[in-house]
Structure formats: structure tokens, C-alpha cells
Amino acid sequence: MTPDRNAAGHSAANLSVTGHGHGASGKFIEAADLSLSFGSTPALRGASLGVTKGEIVAVMGPSGSGKSTLLHCLAGILVPSSGEVHFNGVRLDRLSDDKRSALRRERFGFVFQSGQLVPELTAEENVALPLLLSGMRRGPAMAAARTWFPTLGLDGLESRRSGELSGGQAQRVALARGLVAEPEVLFADEPTGALDSVSGELVMNLLVSAVREQGTTVVLVTHDARVAAYADREVVVRDGMVGTLTGAKP
Ligand code: ADP
Ligand code: MG
């Protein structure tokens, strides 16, 4: 990991946008007192979370508690109605839409529950997608994508479309797509949610070894304690707020 990827010309990550240093606690990602409602439904009600660089944090909690909304706020996909989100000293929730999407594209990776592969594309094209979207030429992008297939036990599946992959295979393709651009932060929302426990463990083992190697920071939403056990730390979201108690009944 180069500590200063901005210097390489990542415009969206230009730290002059806010002039702030790190968040108050000096965390890599810092969310303070986030609130957000969908109509009259409160999804977040004063949620706070700090994540250290290189840390793998599992976000647990019952269905509907606000886990996905929190993840989307941390990733700059949603903007909270109040509270602050800092990423590496940048006030994410104050960036323009354009700057936020550029920052997402350049510095974050995503893995979602269903994988959300593009069905018209082959597995290797799906993996190459973040590189192609950031302007890499097709040849090198596809070559970089292909290197992930043996790593993830997907040899020979490069030209399959998502309809021709098992759930576990599709989820590993989605994981490769989330990591191919070597993001600084990987946001994963129930990445094993559609898998049986054996495939889920396989995906988590691959995820953890890949991110440890890259030094990636990971925020992982899961309702599965076995999945959360792979993380460095667990937090629990309840009623739109973040606590650290595990084991309490909902
Ligand atoms: P979780 O991921 O923990 O299941 P969510 O963050 O998805 O929880 O949802 C939190 C609350 O916000 C729930 O009550 C949910 O129904 C509501 N919610 C989430 N997204 C939307 C949306 N796009 N429109 C309306 N309500 C939403
Ligand atoms: Mg969710």
C-alpha cells in the first residue's frame, strides 16, 4: 500500500476539499452521530463508528436495524441527513456527487449480497469492470482480472456468464471484482448471505487472505456470527445505533 495514492493524481481524493485532518479520533473512517430516514422510517438514529486503517470490522445486527444504510453512508453512496462521515481526513458527506462518486470509484471496492454481476458480461469482464470504468485499457484490465481466477479457485470459469455459475462461484467473482482495483477500503454487504456455510467459509477465507495481503480496510455487514468471527472487531447495529455488545438478544 502506498500511503499517498493521491499524489498519483486521484483527483477526487484531493485532500484540499475540506482542509480537515483526520476525524477527531484520527481514525481512517469516522462516522459521527449519523441520522437518516426513509420517509417516516428512521434507518439511522445517531450511529457512530470509527475504523482503523487495515482493520476488518464486522457490522452485525438484526434485519432492518440499519446495517446497510450505515454501510452506504460510510461508502458515500448515501448522504446522512445529519452527522459527519470522514474518510482519511476528507469530509465525505460534504463532497459534491461527482467527487463522491469519483472517490468511490478510485479508492473503494464493493461486494454485495447477491453478487450483482452483470449478466451480459463474462466472469472475467465482470471482474475487470472497475478497472475499465476507471479508464484502464481493455488488454491490461482483462489480464489483471484473470490473475484472480486461480487465486479464488475459479480456474476455467473466465468466460462463463453469471447464469452459468453456482452461487458460491458468482460470489467469488463478485469478491474479485471488489478487490481487483486494490481499493483502500472494501465495503461488503452480506457477501456470504446467499451461500451455504461451507461456501461462506471459503469466501471468507479468501476475502481475509486477499485483504491482508493488500492491506485493505474492510467493513463487512453480516448477520452470521461465524462470518463475523473472521473480523478483527465486531460492532452491533440496533435501531439505527451502533453498540459493541455482542450476544444480547434483540
Ligand atoms: P439492515 O441492512 O440492517 O437490514 P437497512 O439499513 O436496510 O437495514 O434498513 C433500515 C431501515 O430502513 C429498515 O426499516 C428499512 O425498511 C428501511 N429502509 C432501508 N432502505 C430503504 C429504502 N430505500 N426505502 C425505504 N425504506 C428503507
Ligand atoms: Mg441490509
What is the topological layout?
Layout lengths: L28 E10 L2 E11 L4 E5 L6 H8 L7 E6 L2 E2 L5 H11 E4 L11 H11 L4 H9 L1 H4 L15 H13 L5 E5 L7 H18 L2 E5 L3 H4 L4 E6 L2 E3 L7
Parallel strand pairs: 3-8, 3-9, 6-7, 7-8
Antiparallel strand pairs: 1-2, 1-4, 4-5, 9-10
Question: What report would you give on this structure?
Answer:
This protein is of the alpha/beta class. The chain has one domain: P-loop containing nucleotide triphosphate hydrolases (Rossmann fold, 3-Layer(aba) Sandwich). It has 8 helices and 10 strands. The chain has helices at residues 67-74, 97-107, 123-133, 138-146, 148-151, 167-179, 197-214, 225-228, and strands spanning 29-38, 41-51, 56-60, 82-87, 90-91, 108-111, 185-189, 217-221, 233-238, 241-243. The strands form 2 sheets. It has a 6-stranded mixed β-sheet with strand order 6-7-8-3-9-10. Strand 1 and strand 2 form a beta hairpin. Helix 3 packs across helix 4, helix 3 (123-133) runs parallel beside helix 6 (167-179) and helix 6 packs parallel to helix 7 (197-214). The site of magnesium ion has 3 residues, from helix 1. Magnesium ion binds at residues 67-68, 189.
**Which architecture per CATH?**
3-Layer(aba) Sandwich
Mean pLDDT rating: 87
Instruction: List unreliable stretches of 5+ residues.
Output: 1-21
C-alpha geometry: globular
Question: Which structural traits does this protein have?
Answer:
binds adenosine-5'-diphosphate, 250 residues, binds magnesium ion, Rossmann fold, single chain
Q: Can I get a quick summary?
A:
The protein has helices at residues 67-74, 97-107, 123-133, 138-146, 148-151, 167-179, 197-214, 225-228; strands spanning 29-38, 41-51, 56-60, 82-87, 90-91, 108-111, 185-189, 217-221, 233-238, 241-243. With 250 residues, it is an alpha/beta fold.
